[in-house]
Amino acid sequence: MAIPDFQSFFVPVLRASADGTEHSSSEIREKVAAELALTPDDLDQKLPSGVQTVFANRVTWSTVYVT
Known about the structure:
Layout: H1 10-16, H2 25-36, H3 40-44, H4 54-66
Helix pairs in contact: 1-2, 2-4
């Protein structure tokens, strides 16, 4: 499965943080990855820079837009 665009992460990010408590970025990423049933290969896909994963980048951008 290809990693969706960052807008597609809005609802999963909101669900992951809907319990009213603070969550770390890694907790949000874990919950979103589980909800979307992403494979380890999906999660390991890197950006062209090779520094960050596509998944982490898109979840981060999603949290920026929804908070």
